[in-house]
């Protein structure tokens, strides 16, 4: 069966510090991978998605970047965090190449920027 | 661009009463619509999708293309239905952008005993 792991679960970082959130999927190959941010009153905002290694689509201009160095690894990064980057970040995957929209979500990472 | 709107941030009903969570979408093409649910201390997960035309945990949702809506309904609410509900849209077919899912703002449903 497939599983998705996301870490760290909780992170407190000072403004201006770097960020790295990691997500890995097990039990499947060539998944589509996604980073969402869940903010109160704004719902789930799609930040990045990837349909293959090295292929990143960015949905909103922001202080964040994403990378996919391996097939089942998706990393969310920032060189210098802003206060506005605080939030709950969700990684998700779905079967690649199939015409289905079901996403499978990780447990999330709560980021607090002070 | 695709857009999903859930007009109610909070919805509170009594146990046994009917429930309707509203969802409206904006998309010029043919969409695929979903409802996702997040129970307390659990992961966000799929509840149902319009193409399956199924009832899950007593919930149903009908895609109304004329009104561009996909409201979630249940005739008799139960306390375990308390959760955060998200409506989501995906462009249907093999087109650019068809691999992404756009979510609404979410509605927190509380079922009172």
Notable characteristics:
heterodimer, A: 114 residues, mainly beta, four-stranded antiparallel β-sheet, B: 113 residues, six-stranded mixed β-sheet, three-stranded antiparallel β-sheet, globular
Describe this entry's structure for a reader.
The complex is a heterodimer of chains A (114) and B (113). Chain A contains no helices and eleven strands. Chain A is mainly β and 114 residues long. In chain A, strands 2, 4, 5, 6, 9, 10 and 11 form a seven-stranded mixed β-sheet that branches. In chain A, strands 1-3-8-7 form a four-stranded antiparallel β-sheet, with no helix packed on it. The model of chain A has no long low-confidence stretch (mean pLDDT 91). In chain B, the strands form three sheets. In chain B, strands 2, 5, 6, 9, 10 and 11 form a six-stranded mixed β-sheet that branches. In chain B, strands 3-8-7 form a three-stranded antiparallel β-sheet, with no helix packed on it. Chain A binds chain B through residues 32, 34, 36, 41-46, 49, 51, 57, 59, 90, 92, 94, 99, 101-108, and chain B through 6, 9, 32, 34, 36, 43-46, 49, 86, 88, 90, 92-94, 98-106.
Helical fraction of chain B equals under 10%
Tell me the helix content of chain A. Answer: under 10%
Secondary structure tally, helices of chain A: 0
What's the β-strand tally of chain B? 11
Total number of strands of chain A:
11
Structural shape of chain B: globular
Distance between the ends of chain A: 39 Å
What's the helix-strand series of chain B? EEEEEEEEEEE
Derived structural class of chain A = mainly beta
Secondary-structure-derived class of chain B: mainly beta
Largest sheet features of chain B: 6 strands, mixed
Name the shape of chain A in a single word.
globular
Q: What Rg of chain B, in angstroms, do the CA atoms define?
A: 14 Å
